[in-house]
Each structure stands twice: as structure tokens, then as C-alpha cells.
Amino acid sequence: MSRVQEVILAEPRGFCAGVDRAIEIVERAIAKFGAPIYVRHEIVHNTFVVNELKAKGAVFIEDLAEVPPGATLVFSAHGVSKAVQAEARERGFEIFDATCPLVTKVHVEVAKLAKEGYEFIMIGHKGHPEVEGTMGQLSSGIHLVEDVEDVARVAPSQTEKLAVVTQTTLSVDDAAEISAAVRARFPKVREPKQQDICYATQNRQDAVKVLSPQVDLVIVVGSPTSSNSNRLRELAQRLGTESYMVDSAAELKPEWFEGKTRVGLTAGASAPEVLVGEVIDRIKALGAVSVRKMDGIQETLKFPLPKGLKLEDVPAPGHIS
């Protein structure tokens, strides 16, 4: 029976600039103010990262009522609604906003166009915290569509001033298909100047498109709640390559590798490289003899930290590797 010979690593994979920044905000807040630091929602959707930060003194909550008065609060990378922002201010917390700047860009666009009288169609997944945060920038006039069928049913109160916005971690191909359906039904719809799907989501999906045809199996490192990780697994599957998503090396099943000689490996934007290394070690234990990196885009983007957590303000923490 053939055994795994080679692991091919997707490039790029793993942490993006927004995730790096969000984790660093929590770590620096702990270093500056001491534990506990409260974080509304998982800072990023990764079990390992959340557990590491819990061990350092982060407390993850969903309801602001769980946060004691005067505490330090961090908003997660996914962003929050205007109502959550207002409640946090009223309760008098010291607030640091770890919302990804690419999500904030969508929020700013929504606020600007709403002032001009626009209604919105948002392409995204119901219940995802990013979608709740973006839709919560307005009290009304923003309508969620999850698929092409929803586009046929959506009922804005007017169509003269209609704009489309997108969750940043969607499948690029799915979003394009839904956007096309929106355009077909509402030809005057205003689309973002640059698409809302973030560069890191796009780059990781592009890498999987290159990787999938070269391998017999694709493994995605990512947590079940991570939208962009789920999209990577679905994309490989759609391209005809068997694929699985794992939260850690412990979830790998030897039977997946039976008869497979080349395995592709990638990681969602919230999955740390340490987990990728552990998965490689496990696949090597199953017989893989070589590991090589695919050629791909080198990401160099860095986002600045909020005021009060810059380098001169606080000692640099030991960052999750």
C-alpha cells in the first residue's frame, strides 16, 4: 500500500496581520494592567490561542454584565455593534478595540453611506460575530443574505440607494456568485471600491487553489468556529481533493492517509504556526519523508496598535509563536 511521501505547505497560511494585532493587544493589556483582562467574545476563533491567553489572565465573556466596573475590556477582532460599544462606555470600562482594521473599514463605509440615505445588503453568515457587529452599526436598513436564494427574497424599502457589503472571511467564489445575483436583481446597487473580503482570506484561498491539484489530501489547521478556515476546507473539497479540518494534531486520523502519497497542509488566518508544526510531526510519524513549501505571496502588512498599548507604553509580551 502506498504511504505518505511528501507534505506540501501552502504559502501563505496561518496568522494574518489582524489576528497578530488582536492577540498582541490582549497580551500587552495584560502586561500593562495586570490580569484579569476581559475580552468580549473569543479574541480570534482558535481554541489554542484562546486557551493560551486564558492561562495568561484573559477572561472571555459574551455579556458585558459579567465584567466588573472599572475593568479593562478588549473587543475581539470580529468587531462589535454600536449598542455594545455604547454599553461598554456607559459601564465605564477601559476599552481597547482589537477589531481588525479591515472590518473597521467596512463599518466606516456603512456609516458614511447610511448618512447619504443608503440601505445595505450584507453577504455573510447569520450569527457570525463579524456579521452581528457590522449589521449592528445601524438600527435598521441592513439586510443579510447568505446565499443566492436569499437575494431573491430580500426586501429593501427602496432600491434607488442600495449598497452591498460583505463579511471579510467568506469564500471569494461564493461571494462573487451572490454579488452577481444582487447585481442582477438590483442593477443600480453600489459595490465597494475594493472588495470587502480581506487580503489574507483571498491569499489563503488562492494558495489552496494552487495546492489542491498537486496533492491527494488537504489538511486545514483551524477551529470549527473559524469562518475562513472552514472556507479553505470547503474550497479544497470543491476542487475535488479530499480535505479535513483539524483543531490540533490529535484530531488527525491515520485512515485519512491510507493510499495517499502527497498531503497538502494549510492553516486558517487565526491558527498559529506551532499547531502546523505539530501536524507535520504527526504526518511524519505516519511515514512522510519530506516537507516542502509551495511558492506563494509573502505577506508583509502590519497594523498599528491602539494608543496606550504602543511599544513605549508597555513592555513587549512573550507572543504566542
How would you sum up this structure, described in words?
The protein is an alpha/beta fold and 321 residues long. It has helices spanning 17-33, 47-56, 82-90, 101-115, 129-135, 148-153, 172-185, 199-211, 227-238, 273-285; strands at 6-9, 37-40, 58-61, 72-75, 94-97, 119-123, 142-145, 162-166, 217-221, 242-246, 262-267, 290-293. Strands 10-9-11-1-12 form a five-stranded parallel sheet, with helices on both faces. Strands 3-2-4-5 form a four-stranded parallel sheet. It has a three-stranded parallel sheet with strand order 7-6-8, with helices on both faces. Helix 8 (199-211) runs parallel beside helix 9 (227-238). The two termini are 37 Å apart. The model has no long low-confidence stretch (mean pLDDT 95).
What are the salient characteristics of this protein?
single chain; about 325 residues; five-stranded parallel β-sheet
Q: What strand line-up does the widest sheet have?
A: 10-9-11-1-12
* Secondary-structure element pattern, one letter each: EHEHEEHEHEHEHEHHEHEEHE
Cα shape: globular
| Overall SS class | alpha/beta
What's the alpha carbon Rg, rounded to whole Å? 21 Å
Number of strands: 12
Helical element count?
Answer: 10
Oligomer description: single chain
Mean pLDDT over all positions: 95
State the share of residues found in helices, binned by percent.
25-40%
Sheet of most strands? 5 strands, parallel
What portion of residues belong to β-strands? Answer: 15-25%
Query: Which segments are poorly predicted (pLDDT under 50) over 5 or more consecutive residues?
Result: none
Q: What's the end-to-end separation, in Å?
A: 37 Å
